[in-house]
Amino acid sequence: MPEIVLKKPIYDKDAEQLQKCFTQGVIELEDDNNGRRHAIVSKPRLDMCSREALRYPELKDRIELNKIRDHFIFSIESA
């Protein structure tokens, strides 16, 4: 499962740029008390392991992209 860590807050135009780098729904923009929009990681499971954000110098130092290798999804059936 992908893990997206925002190491520093990302606001306004940079937040919009970050949102465009990922699949729709992965990054959401929220308004804060000062009227600025900031990025939050909403649904990391939707990410297709895109490294697009690392191409932008203004973003690459503010985010960390990892994979959680021991994350499993399964169901147990019992009678």
UniProtKB/TrEMBL annotation:
The keyword Lyase does not apply. Keywords: DNA-directed RNA polymerase, Transcription. GO terms for biological process: DNA-templated transcription. Gene3D superfamilies: RNA polymerase, RBP11-like subunit. One of its GO terms (cellular component) is RNA polymerase I complex. One of its GO terms (molecular function) is protein dimerization activity. PANTHER family: DNA-DIRECTED RNA POLYMERASE (PTHR11800), DNA-DIRECTED RNA POLYMERASES I AND III SUBUNIT RPAC1 (PTHR11800:SF13). This is Uncharacterized protein. It comes from Adineta steineri.
